[in-house]
Design goal:
alpha+beta; D-amino Acid Aminotransferase, Chain A, domain 1; 2 domains; 6-stranded antiparallel sheet; 5-stranded antiparallel sheet
Length: 397
């Protein structure tokens, strides 16, 4: 029958046309069914997303009905960023901690006074045009006293007479080019200084150490960002890992950034947490990010950051929890101030030399916002005695 049918179809053209049409329709039906199946899967995914958003909206509405806007780290941070510039023009605000924090060398002096290790400073210059790199080690880091992110930070390797390679980048510069770069960077402000290049034990000398950024709320840690740089200053190529104060992962969905759970915890992680908590209590702010490095010599301070850059977008529950920590830290700081804590950034008991060059404002008898305030560290910075660890509603409250 099959052979006979083929002959009839070949002999009668309309039959051949009909079969081709039916075959085409069957193909269309299969394609439509595939599209419907794909659309059904998309609909189901959207339904799940809608259900999740409705649940979040219900919680949000419930908070509004109770006249309580949910705490939010990002919202508080953005509000702080917007209002921060106003404090510089306020009468009597010269010694406010918010004004004192943005200077790297001053933060080194603060940390060292509390016994927190800092990089060895190899040279300091008032202006970029006076920077002299002769006599420095083969590897060093050149920095501006003020500057955000990697702006004004140059990790350098000497590769010849007056010739330097930017570690983690590969660009080659001469002293004149380095001076011009710093002069042309608006966010990099002097003085400028050179410091030792830090080395991470498990990475070797040719790789930049991991950033260990501790989000601290007046003695309590919200989370720790471990950031591995593969190219100096290029955020797009960096990998991230977020952990809590005990080193437990906070999940791949904690943020939209590229998460790499393979970034190892620092060998001295517990000590890093301890140092960050201590410094966060020394700074009279409810929130400070304490940036450290885990080096062959142990934990070393990188810098202190008042308002971290970037979008700072986290999973809703984590953002809310960080916001709660910020609010509670503000209250605990207020309580300590009422109990006698000086409302300034407090230096420790160790006598540390002033790292700034002669003629700098910090050397003047009336140093203004460069004034150094000291207070008994065992009362305000030590975990066991600081108000940061008093339980709400306890006897000391």
């Amino acid at each position: 029958m099959g052979e006979l049918r083929r002959r009839l179809v070949a002999a009668i053209p309309p039959l051949a046309w009909r079969d081709e049409l039916l075959a085409g329709r069957e193909q269309q039906v299969r394609e439509l069914r595939r599209r419907v199946a794909d659309r059904d899967r998309q609909i189901e995914t959207h339904r799940e997303e809608i259900a999740r958003h409705r649940a979040e909206l219900a919680t949000y509405r419930g908070d509004l009905r109770s006249d309580l806007l949910p705490p939010s780290f990002r919202r508080t941070l953005m509000a702080t960023r917007r209002t921060a510039p106003a404090i510089w023009g306020m009468h009597g605000a010269a010694q406010h901690p918010f004004i004192q924090v943005p200077y790297k060398l001053r933060n080194y002096r603060l940390a060292a006074s509390h016994g927190v290790p800092v990089p060895s400073v190899l040279g300091v210059w008032k202006r970029a045009g006076t920077i002299d790199l002769d006599g420095l080690p083969e590897r060093f880091v050149l920095k501006s006293d003020r500057g955000a992110g990697s702006h004004g930070v140059l990790p350098l390797q000497r590769i010849g007479p007056d010739r330097y390679r930017l570690v983690g980048d590969g660009r080659e510069l001469e002293t004149g080019g380095i001076r011009a770069h710093l002069d042309s960077t608006p966010t990099a402000r002097g003085p400028y200084f050179a410091e030792e290049m830090l080395e991470q034990p498990d990475l070797g000398p040719d790789l930049l150490p991991d950033d260990v950024k501790v989000y601290a709320f007046y003695g309590r840690v919200g989370h720790v960002l471990l950031r591995r740089p593969t190219e100096h200053g290029n955020l797009a190529t960096m990998a991230y890992r977020f952990v809590d104060d005990r080193g437990a992962d906070l999940g791949d969905d904690i943020t939209a950034q590229r998460i790499d759970p393979g970034i190892p915890l620092p060998a001295n992680f517990a000590r890093i947490i301890e140092l960050a908590e201590h410094l966060s209590r020394a700074v009279a702010l409810p929130f400070i990010r304490v940036d450290l490095y885990d080096t062959t010599a142990g934990p070393v301070l990188g810098e202190l950051t008042r308002t971290p850059g970037g979008p700072q977008l986290y999973r809703a529950d984590h953002d809310r929890w960080l916001g709660e920590l910020w609010n509670e830290a503000r209250l605990r700081l207020d309580v300590d101030i009422q109990a006698g804590r000086p409302p300034f950034t407090l230096h420790g008991s160790l006598d540390v030399p002033n790292p700034y060059p002669a003629g700098h404002a910090s050397w003047k008898p009336d140093a203004g916002h460069w004034t150094v305030h000291r207070a008994p560290c065992e009362r305000w910075c030590d975990t066991s005695t600081s108000g940061a660890d008093r339980a709400p509603g306890g006897d000391e409250m």
